[in-house]
Design brief:
Layout lengths: L8 H4 E10 L2 E8 L5 E8 L12 H13 L8 E6 L3 E6 L7 H6 L6 H20 L2 E2 L8 E3 L9 E3 L6 E2 L7 E2 L9 H4 L7 H16 L9 H9 L7 H4 L4 H8 L12 H6 L8 H9 L4 H35 L5 H12 L14 E2 L1
Antiparallel strand pairs: 1-2, 2-3, 3-5, 4-5, 6-9, 7-8, 10-11
Helix pairs in contact: 4-6, 6-9, 6-12, 12-13
Bound molecules: adenosine-5'-triphosphate (ATP).
Length: 361
């Protein structure tokens, strides 16, 4: 069991600028007072009463911590320490300062498939490692694939956000309907028992986007997107995939398989000829193919816009909830408890949304 230190985090770390926001709180740069080293502090609001719509169950944070402790690998963000106060838990994480991989790529003029493959290899190495430990990430998406810093050559991938991750115990059946529609596997939507293969589906989607700048299942609404996933409605439109090698398409096809058991594992992906060519002809084909940069840049710009839009929606929901609580002249006891939660989150609007609701063993 992880040790959650009861001391005040500010006695040990100076709290600095906001690096990012998630559904349950903020991530801030922090500076260790003794060494002067910089880290990332992930501040997670803990739900105080079962009825509350705000914050996380402590057990959910315990799971995230337990998993992070089990996955020490160069391509996975490292956990240093955990602090706990009455209302929140603070994870002290390795500072990942290179930004998101997709943003890094979008700044380039062009990118050969061989260069994209170097990134894919690191993602797959990280996944192979966690899957060997029977841990699935369950929230792989561009926002959770970052670069350790801006100077390393080659850039070093770090997978972050293990908030939805799960460690499978022998014989366990695990179901969850959490995730992000564009990237979730069909078995998540149809509420089937899950395995590490669900991550491999997300890798198929991410690779598809990386090469074409198109999201394979994206509909106008989340419902439409989920429907497209279930119907396996995707194609390699020549207009977007004219620069893509046949091996890359084969790689994606072997991941976007409806039956999880038919999908390649991370180990198998690392041996696929697109990643590890066997013949000189295969290697040469990858060098001649490139990613559809014009469309990729468009995809990334839209993605960033949606992220900011979502953050504004979260803030609006907080304002509405507060008005709702305050307008009620004689709130019932449960509502009162919820109201006190709202006041606690005044400075952290991002902790309103919840995504870790629906997992069950
Ligand atoms: P979500 O609601 O998306 O699951 P979350 O509350 O679990 O989010 P994270 O995704 O872990 O939080 O972090 C939110 C954001 O904070 C990230 O998208 C990233 O921009 C930033 N971030 C997270 N961890 C780090 C880190 N170790 N170093 C630097 N920035 C980080």
């Amino acid at each position: 069991m992880a040790v959650f230190k009861p001391e005040n985090v500010e006695d040990f770390y100076e709290i600095g600028e906001v690096l990012g926001s998630g559904h349950f709180g903020q991530v801030r740069q922090v500076r260790e007072r003794t060494s002067g080293n910089f880290w990332a502090g992930k501040f997670l609001k803990i739900r105080k009463v079962a009825c509350s719509r705000l914050g996380l169950d402590r057990s959910s944070v315990e799971r995230e911590v337990e998993i992070l402790q089990a996955v020490q690998h160069p391509n996975i963000v490292a956990l240093k320490d955990v602090f706990e106060s009455r209302a929140e838990v603070v994870l002290i994480l390795e500072l990942v300062s290179g930004g998101e991989l997709f943003d890094f790529i979008a700044e380039k003029e062009n990118l050969l498939e061989t260069e994209a493959i170097e990134f894919m290899k690191q993602i797959l190495e990280g996944l192979r490692f966690i899957h060997c430990k029977n841990i699935a990430h369950f929230d792989l998406k561009p926002e959770n694939i970052m670069l350790s810093d801006k100077v390393s050559k080659p850039p070093n991938i770090k997978l972050i956000d293990f908030g939805l991750a799960h460690m499978f115990h022998p014989g366990e059946e695990y179901k969850s309907t959490s995730g992000t529609p564009q990237y979730i596997a069909p078995e998540v939507i149809s509420c089937q028992p899950l395995s590490t293969a669900a991550d491999m589906w997300s890798i198929g989607v991410i690779t598809y986007i990386l090469l074409s700048g198109l999201s394979p299942f994206q509909g106008d609404t989340d419902e439409e997107t989920l429907g497209n996933v279930i119907a396996m409605k995707y194609e390699f439109n020549e207009h977007y995939f004219s620069l893509t090698s046949p091996m890359a398409k084969d790689f994606i096809q072997k991941l976007l398989m409806k039956n999880p058991e038919d999908r390649m594992t991370a180990e198998e992906c690392l041996l696929h000829p697109w990643i590890k060519p066997i013949t000189p002809k295969q290697a040469a084909k990858r060098n001649r193919s490139s990613i559809n940069m014009k469309n990729f840049k468009k995809f990334n710009a839209r993605r960033k816009w949606k992220m900011s839009y979502n953050m504004v929606s979260v803030c609006n929901r907080l304002v509405n909830l507060r008005l709702l609580c305050k307008d009620t002249s004689s709130p019932d006891p449960l509502q009162r408890q919820c109201e006190s939660d709202v006041e606690d989150t005044e400075s952290k609007p991002a902790s309103l949304l919840r995504r870790r609701l629906s997992s069950s063993s």
